[in-house]
Amino acid sequence: MIKIMIADDQELIRQSLSIVLNSKEGLEVIAAAANGQEVISSVRKQRPDIILMDIRMPKMDGVQCTKIIKENYPDIKIIILTTFDDDEYVYDALKHGASGYLLKGISMDGLEEAIHTVYGGQAMINQDIATKVVKLFSQMAKADYAIQVDEHLSQDLTGTEWKIIGEVGRGSSNKEIAENLMLSEGTVRNYLSNILNKLELRDRTQLAIWAVQTQANKR
What are the phi and psi torsion angles at 113 (to 5°)? Predict the structure, then answer.
C-alpha cells in the first residue's frame, strides 16, 4: 500500500483527491495539510511514502517545504502539483529533490501512474511542460546551480549511454527514447539505471540537468 499525503490550501482539492485516490487499489491517503507548516508537523507522525505538494500555499510554500522534507526525510518522494504560471518555482522544487512536476489538470489515471512511477524510484514530469522544464534546465546549467560529476566517472560511459543521456537532456520520455534509438522500454530503463550508478547521480532529474550543462559546456 502506497501511503500518500496531500498538501494544498484549497479544501475542495484536498477532499477531491482523497476520495479519488482512496478508491484506487494500492493507494491510501493517510493525511492532508493546508500549508507547508502543517505538512512538516504531520510528516513526523504519519511518515507518508509520497507527498502531493501544491506550490503556492500560505505560511510556507511547497518549495521551502520540499527542501525541509528532503533534508530530514530523504526517502519520502514529493510530487509537485502546479499550474503554467508557476514556472519560476521549477528550479528550486527540482533541485531540492522533488521527484515529479505535474500540472493540476492531469487526469486521475495520469496522477495514479505518476504516483506509481515516483514510488518506484523514477522521476515524472508532465509532458505538457517537459519543453519548459528543459529550457529551465538550460538556464540553470548556465547559472549558479550545477550537478557535479567527477570526470573519470563519465569516461566509462558507452556510446549508447551517451545517446540516452542526450535524449534525457532533451526531455524525452522512456517511450520516446526507445522509439528514437530502436530499443525496448525495458532496455532503456536498464540503461538509465546503469548510467545513474556510473555517474553516482540520485535520479533522472539530476541526470537531465547534468546532460544539459555538459552540452552547454561543449559549445
Answer: -60, -40
What is the C-alpha to C-alpha distance for residues 162 and 158, in angstroms, rounded to an integer?
Answer: 6
Does residue 153 sit in helix, strand or coil? helix
Same-domain check for residues 110 and 33: yes
Nearest to 48 by CA among 115, 135, 137: 115
- In this structure, are 83 and 52 located in the same domain? yes
Q: What is the pLDDT of residues 49-106, one digit of tens each?
A: 999 999 888 888 888 899 899 989 999 999 998 876 566 676 677 777 888 888 888 8
Looking at the DSSP bridge assignments, the partners of residue 103 are: 82
- Mapped onto helix, strand or coil, the DSSP state of residue 5 is strand
First to last CA, the chain: 47
Closest by CA to 89, choosing from 71, 76, 102, 74, is 102
Could you tell me the residue range of the domain that residue 109 belongs to?
Answer: 2-125
Which tens digits make up the pLDDT trace of 160-188?
999 999 888 877 888 889 999 999 989 99
Cell matching residue 218: 561543449
